[in-house]
Amino acid sequence: MQMIALFGELTDDQANTYGLVLTSYGLPYTVRRTRRGWEIWVSEDVHDEAMDLIDHYLRENPHLPILDAPREPQIQKTFSGVWVSLLLLAAFLGTYRNGLSTTVINDFGAIASRILDGEIYRAVTSLLLHADFLHLAGNIAGVAIFGTAVCNIMGSGVGWLMILLSGIIGNLLNAWAVETTHISIGASTAVFGAVGILAAHSFLNRWREQDRHKPAWLPIAGGLGLLALLGTGPHSDITAHLFGFLAGTVLCLAYHRYIDGTMAQTYQRTAWGVTMTVVCLSWLVAIR
What we know:
63% of the residues lie in helices and 9% in strands. It is α+β, with helices and mostly antiparallel strands. A hairpin with a 2-residue loop joins strand 2 and strand 3.
């Protein structure tokens, strides 16, 4: 069972007190020492119950000091990028027969004119198409590195939903901006969406710190540098990569405008469900 940080930066007294509360109700937990204090970790299936118990205890004992740190669940490192990589591999094996056929591209690729005619599902199905194994390998590496990093910050459910939305929005904007004969395939639009999310997240952290020695705009510049380095090679769809990056940046800024921290597991599962539903429905519509 995955473990989640219930609290961080606790004093010795706070860690002992909260631990006694959880023990009195029979909830298992672990404590970890960090440079900033103590952390209390619980399994994800009892996280919400444990949080409610501590909240109830604090309400009944208002004389206790209130934590300065936001008490939001912090997701432990996830390896969901492996599963998404396997999904990309399965789609590649299912569509690649001695090369990606013209028929497959015409049926599922992000053809600008067809998207503008209302075939929105192509903005999703095209993300799972790859021209060859090298194309696939590059995007699997991007998913493993940048996708996993996003999910470590936002949780695997919300993280992959935002990455998928970045890819969809990037493809839609690309279809609107380029010539109608343009065709785009590959998960790289979503991968650069993940880069945009990470850049925006780092930007916000620096902005909140208000440290003049750490200019807030540097992560955005770094993200654009990665875009220039990795997303502008031969045969690259530069505009799709750019729109994916911008979509991810805006989505992350919007997320943190209304939500401070990582969402609870209930929302993570819901987001996972929405992500898989969008992908499956898009392919079902395309195959019909």
